[in-house]
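Backbone geometry:

***
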Amino acid sequence: MIERDCPTAKSLFEDYVKATVEYFEAAENLSNLVGSHDLFVVAASHTEQAGEKCQAARLAINKHRLEHNCS
């Protein structure tokens, strides 16, 4: 649960949610392009970038929680 009194934690969590949704949508799109090599390569790159963005957002919220004791 996100601490309601911490706007930074709330903002970081919202960024993480957005990144997670983007990653899910990119992976879903990628799965629909199996067999279309050129489109698949582009989508695979986007999916990898979205995954990295999601991981960075998760690390940011976890780091903030540890540093500021936000729950």
